[in-house]
Structure formats: structure tokens, C-alpha cells
UniProtKB/TrEMBL annotation:
The keyword Iron does not apply. Keywords: DNA-binding, Repressor, Transcription, Transcription regulation. Residues 12-80 form the HTH merR-type domain. One of its GO terms (molecular function) is DNA binding. This is Glutamine synthetase. The gene is glnR. It comes from Philodulcilactobacillus myokoensis.
Length: 125
DNA sequence: CTTCTAACA
DNA sequence: TGTTAGTA
């Protein structure tokens, strides 16, 4: 991971901020965590602390859901994403960026699942 | 005042 | 998912 990703990985955002940034209820955000889709840190008071990467992922999950996918489908997406990222790095000397890998995987999943929307506004990538 | 967990007229 | 109770 590079230095430009450091600030995006810092968990410093409280629930209230994430609610506004994602336009989701605390209930929904906690549900994503309960489903092991996101892993926010906790402060000494047991309160959740999110990073900007968490926020991006939450919005992505939100879009996946509105595009017809269920929790299981989304878990598969991230599972494959992890595997594919390793494969690519080992198979080629060229190192793909996270965004490039995500783009390929997500586009593949949506196309194969028939979830691809014709409306660009419905997609977060 | 904000957030957390657990539970459901 | 919403909402509410009782905490921290």
C-alpha cells in the first residue's frame, strides 16, 4: 500500500459522519458490519471508527444491494477480489493497482450476473 | 449530545 | 429496517 492510501486507511470517522457521507442509517451500517462486509475499528469507548476506505466500501455495498445483489453475492465479490488480487500479482511482474483490479473483477461479476445497469448513475464505479 | 447492544406494540 | 430502552 502506498502513502497516498495511508490517510484513506486511517479509522477516524464516527458513526454520525459516516451516516451523512453514505446516506444510510446507523442500523444499516451496523448490519453491514454484522454481515462481515466491513470491519470498522473501535475506540476505547467501544464506538466504531471508520476510514475513508470504509466509507467507499459502504457506498459500494449499498449500490450492489440496489442493483439486486444479496449479502452472499457481495461476500463472493470481495472473496474473489482478494484471490484475484493475489493471482495477478504472482502471475505477472506488472503490479496492478487496487482500482484496476477492482474494476476488472466488478465489471466481470456484474456482466456475468446480469446485474449491469444501462444507467451509469446506478453504478459507483 | 452521540453511540452501542439487544429486542420487538 | 425502524425504533426504543438503558448504557457508556
Amino acid at each position: 500500500m502506498e502513502k497516498t492510501d495511508l490517510h484513506r486507511s486511517l479509522s477516524v470517522l464516527p458513526m454520525g459522519t459516516v451516516m451523512k457521507l453514505t446516506d444510510l442509517s446507523a442500523r444499516q451500517i451496523r448490519y453491514y458490519e454484522q454481515q462481515q462486509l466491513i470491519f470498522p475499528k473501535r475506540n476505547k469507548g467501544n464506538q466504531r471508527l471508520f476510514s475513508l476506505n470504509d466509507v467507499d466500501k459502504i457506498i459500494e455495498i449499498k449500490n450492489f444491494l440496489s442493483n439486486g445483489m444479496n449479502i452472499a453475492d457481495i461476500k463472493h465479490v470481495y472473496k474473489k477480489y482478494q484471490l484475484q488480487k493475489k493471482e495477478k500479482q504472482h502471475r505477472y511482474s506488472k503490479r496492478l493497482t487496487d482500482n484496476e483490479t477492482r474494476r476488472l473483477l466488478i465489471d466481470d461479476i456484474l456482466t456475468a450476473g446480469g446485474f449491469k445497469s444501462k444507467n451509469p448513475k446506478d453504478q459507483s464505479f
